[in-house]
Amino acid sequence: MRKFITLSLVATAVCATFAVGAAEACTPSREFTTMKPGVLTIAAQTYRPYSITQPDGSVTGVDGEILKEIAKRECLTIETISVDAAAALNYVQTGKADITVGDWYRTKARSEVLNMSDPLYVDQMGIVSKDGTTKLSDLEGAMVGTVQSNLWVPDLKKLYGSNLKLYPVLAQVQQDLKNGRIEAFVESYSIAVLSEEAGELEGFKAAVAEADERVSSSKLPGQGAFPLNKENTSLLEVVNANIAELHANGFIKETLVKFGLDASAAEAGEPRWLE
């Protein structure tokens, strides 16, 4: 349940801080403030393929590349602070960073203590099987696995009953798939793609699951967004304006594909809260 880590109040040591680019002479689209004038400070952690910290301290991945484009458009230099996932939100909440990266879901609880940007993409449900099926209905009657902390577990229990096997970690799901104890498993498509790229799914295919009325997470997946400090509404406004433009010109779609995800994930829909 990486997306639902609660806000940690325990300080985490800063591993490194780097300036990762200089903004060229330009004019910002509107007035806004950041912690340091002319600098966008990012609490950066690795959560592939959305945020990937580099050896020099810079950050790439889907979120990282989107922020670089926003910074370029708004005449900002990027500075990164390397943190672990448990501390990232706290850094933003307490004003130690302007923003953080890593497929953070737009949840109602987060909105009470942070500003959450408009959605960048949806974290699509995926199916891993031998034939690359895209339909949850095709798995009825088969043994299906998933990690027990996933959002869709209650719905899949209703759909598959005793044919659904729950696991504490993904590695065990993958092992049972290879051993034939299950015929398929359901996982975030982004995680399934990473496993596929790492050669952990030889003989199996990862596919985006089609929407199924019986499984709410397949119809309305979690929307990934940027968390920002609650008090800085001017930065939220400029980030949202840029997100809208980067959706319109195809930049977000292209970035998703660049990191191995499906272009359709950019069709995030209207902003909504995950309860």
Number of helices: 9
CATH architecture descriptor of the largest domain: 3-Layer(aba) Sandwich
Q: According to CATH, what is the class of the largest domain?
A: Alpha Beta
CATH superfamily of the largest domain: Periplasmic binding protein-like II
The gross shape turns out to be elongated
How would you describe this protein?
The chain has helices at 61-73, 85-93, 108-111, 153-160, 170-179, 189-197, 216-219, 233-248, 251-258; strands at residues 17-19, 39-44, 52-53, 59-60, 77-82, 99-100, 104-105, 114-116, 121-122, 125-129, 144-147, 164-167, 184-188, 205-208, 223-225, 227-229. With 275 residues, it is an alpha/beta fold. The protein has two domains: 2-122 and 222-266, Periplasmic binding protein-like II (D-Maltodextrin-Binding Protein, domain 2, 3-Layer(aba) Sandwich), CATH 3.40.190.10; 125-219, Periplasmic binding protein-like II (D-Maltodextrin-Binding Protein, domain 2, 3-Layer(aba) Sandwich), CATH 3.40.190. The chain has a five-stranded mixed sheet with strand order 12-11-13-10-14, with helices on both faces.
Summarize this entry quickly.
The protein has 275 residues and is of the alpha/beta class. 29% of the residues lie in helices and 20% in strands. α1 packs antiparallel against α9.
